[in-house]
Amino acid sequence: MNRVLLSTILVSCLILGACKKKQPPQNPEVPVNLLKLTPRTVLYYDKYPATTRALNQVNLLSQVSGAVTGIFFTEGTKVQKGQKLYEIDERIYKAAYDQAVANLDVSQSGLVQAQQDADRYEYLNKYNAVAKQQYDHAVVTLAQAKSTVKASEQAVKTAKTNLTYATIYAPFTGTIGISQVRMGEVVTPMVTTLDTLSTDDPMAVDFIINEKNLPFFEKMQREKVKVDSLFTLLLPDNSLYDHVGKLSIIDRAVDPQTGSIRIRLVFDNPKFALRAGMSCVVRVHNQDVGPQLVVPNKAVVEQMGEYFVYVAKDTLIKVSADSLKKMDQKAAADANKPKLIAVQKKVKTGQVVGPNIVIKSGIEAGDRIVVDGLQSLHDGARITTANKVGPGGGRRGG
Predict the structure, then answer these.
(1) Strands 260-267 and 245-250, sheet pairing
(2) What is the 3 state secondary structure string of 174-218?
(3) Which of 123, 183, 210, 286 has its Cβ near the most Cβ atoms within 10 Å?
C-alpha cells in the first residue's frame, strides 16, 4: 500500500514539473526589426485606365435613297476634306432637277408676258382707255406670275440639293474606315451608315477619376501648371508612348451613381500610333514634390478596411519592491531600465511605390516602426531588437 502511494506521489510530482516547464515566461519580449523613418523624395505615378478617342468623328449617312453606284476611296486610308467618297444613283434626282429647271423657264416666260400686259394696261388706265376690271386682272396676273417664278426657283433649289446629296464628300480630313455598304446596295436616308470618318492627329484620351481627386485636376486646368511629363501614356503592349499629353477637358458633372467624372487629355499623334478605341493607361506624375514618409509595404497591417503600423516606444515597467528583493542584483538592475513596447498607430496610406507605400498621416519622422516580426505582436506588446528577425512577419492585408 505504501509503495502504491509513493509511486502515485512521484508520478504527480513529475507531471507537475513537466507542466511548469511548459509554461511560457510572463511578458515575453517579441524579437523584431525596426526602421527609423526619414522623409525622402518619392517619384511615382497615379495610373488610370483610359481609352483613346478621335477629337472629331462622324458616321457618314446618305440623305437620299437609292443604290450605291460609286465608291471612290481606299478603305482604311486618309482622305482629304471635300474628297468624293460615295455616289448614289443620281438619275432620278438629275431628271427631277432638269424638270424643275424647265418649269422655271416656263414660269419665267409667263412672268415676262404678265409684265408686258400689266405695263400696257397701266398706260391705258392713265387715259381711261381700258376697263378698270381688265387693268385689275392684269395686275393680279402679274403677281401670280411672280409667285410662280419664286416657287419654281425653290423647286430648282430642292432638286439641286437632292442631286447634290447623291454624292457624299468628306466633311474633314481624316482616316476612313471599312465601308459598310457595297456597290449596288440600296441605302435608306438617315438610316444606313455608309462608313465612319475620324481625325487622327491630335488624339484624345479619356479616363475616369474619383471626385476626391477632382481638385487636383481643376488646379491644373485653372492655373495651367506646367510640369514635365505630367501626363504620360502606356500603350496596350505596356510600352511608353513617346509624346506627353495636355489636359483638355474636365466633364461638366460628376456621375452621382459612381462618384466619378471623366477627364480628357490630348496627345500629338504624328505617326498615327494611337487609334481610336485603344485601351491604354494614363500615368499622372505625382505633385507631392516635398519629402514624404515611406515604409515597407509589409510593415502595414490592414484591419477592417483600416491600416495600422506598430511604432516602438520606450517605457519604464514598474516592478514591485517584493519582486526586486527576489531578483539577483543584475536582474534587479535590468528591471529598472526602460523597455521597448509596440504601440499600434492608425495611418492614412498613399501611393504604393514598388515594395513600399507612402504614409500620409498617423506617424512622424523619427518614429521607429516594426518591419519584421508583426505576426506575434499586439498593441502594448514588449519587443526587443536583441535577436535579428528574418524578413517577413507582416504584410499589408494580413
Answers:
(1) antiparallel
(2) EEECCCCCCCCCEECCCCCEEEEEECCCCEEEEEEEEHHHHHHHH
(3) 286
Task: Please give the distance of CA 276 from its chain centroid, rounded to a whole number.
Answer: 15
Q: Provide the domain count of the chain.
A: 3
Same domain, 276 and 295: no
Give the residue carrying C-alpha cell 516606444: 313
> Within this chain, do residues 311 and 380 fall inside the same structural domain, yes or no?
yes
Q: Which residues contact 27 (CB under 8 A, 6 or more apart)?
A: 317, 382
Query: Which residue matches cell numbers 517605457?
Result: 315
The CATH number linked to 36 is 2.40.420.20
Terminal alpha carbon distance of the chain? 59
**Within a 10 A sphere around the Cβ of 174, how many other Cβ atoms?**
22
Q: How many residues does the chain have?
A: 398
Q: Which three cell numbers stand for residue 250?
A: 474636365
- Residue 42 binned pLDDT confidence (cut-offs 50, 70, 90): confident
C-alpha cell, 298: 509589409
pTM of structure: 0.61
- Residue 315 lies inside a defined structural domain of this protein: yes
**Is the same domain home to 110 and 51?**
no
Higher pLDDT, 337 or 207: 207
The pLDDT tens digits of the residues spanning 130-181 come to: 778 887 788 888 888 889 889 988 998 998 988 999 999 999 999 999 999 9
Q: Does the bond joining 355 to the residue before it have cis omega, within 30 degrees of 0?
A: no
What domain range is 334 assigned to? 26-41+291-384
pLDDT on residue 316: 56
Residue 374 scores a pLDDT above 70: yes
CA angle 195, 201, 202 (to 5 degrees): 120
